[in-house]
Structure formats: structure tokens, C-alpha cells
Amino acid sequence: MNDPEKAEDVLQDTLLSIHRARHTYLPGRPVGPWMYAICGHRMTDFYRWHRRVEKAEIALTEDIDPQSEENKRGRSVLEALAGLPEKQQQVIKLLKVQGLSVKEVSNATGMSESSVKVTAFRGYESIRQIFGVAKK
Q1: Which domain holds residue 101?
Q2: What is the pLDDT of residues 51-69, one digit of tens each?
Q3: 3-class SS shares of the chain: helix, strand, coil, % to 5
Q4: Predicted TM-score (pTM) of this structure
Q5: Inside any domain, residue 49
Q6: Whether residue 127 sits in one domain with residue 73
Q7: Distance CA 28, CA 9 (A)
Q8: Domain check: are 73 and 120 in the same one?
Q9: Considering only Cβ atoms within 10 Å of each terminal Cβ, which end of the chain, N or C, has fewer?
């Protein structure tokens, strides 16, 4: 992790996690291993998220060709997304574009977590149908 901003984000998330989990600490037990376990979980979460985002994102450069295959696919996906009902568009954009969790989307939209999942699933199914992709 060479980016100081990312390191600060992970540190802040770790400190918040320690604060939130303070009720799980057993007095009389060593604090170090308890804190190290929480830190390890936060680092694992960070790397999982970062790896997932890196696989999904295409690096943008100034010399990118507007006629490239990646741009054509990106436009096709945006057009398919625009054809969905407003609620499905909103949920998918929050989940996939902004990278929010289901719980965060639930809080942002006022929908239940189950409704967020169902709405996203239906949107994904519609996009699969538009592209003629069979579900695995």
C-alpha cells in the first residue's frame, strides 16, 4: 500500500472498528492480539475491495481511443442501464458505480436491505436479457 491516502483510510477504518468492537474486549486479556485481529480483518477487507475494484475498472489515460472496444462496451452498458426503471438504475449505480454496500444503499434510499437486493437482482437480470447473456 504505497498511497498515503489509502493507508490513512484503512487506519481510520481500523480505529473505528476497534471503537465499535470495544465491548468484545475481555478485561484481563492482552489488548495487543485483540487489536491485531481487528486490524487484520480491516486489511483483508481493504485488499478484497481494492482487488475487486481493480479488476472491474479500466485505467483512463489521456490518449485513450474513443473508438476502443472498452469504450464501446462501456457505452453499451450505460445505454442498457438507462433503459431500466429509475429505482433499478439508482440501486445499481450506488452498488456498482459508487461501490456502496447493500446496507449503505438501504440507508441512502430508505429501502430495506432485502428490497435493495431484489431490485439489484432484477436490474442485473434485465441487463443480461438486453445483452443476451444466459445466467450461469
Answers
A1: 69-131
A2: 766 665 555 444 556 566 6
A3: 75, 0, 25
A4: 0.51
A5: yes
A6: yes
A7: 30
A8: yes
A9: C
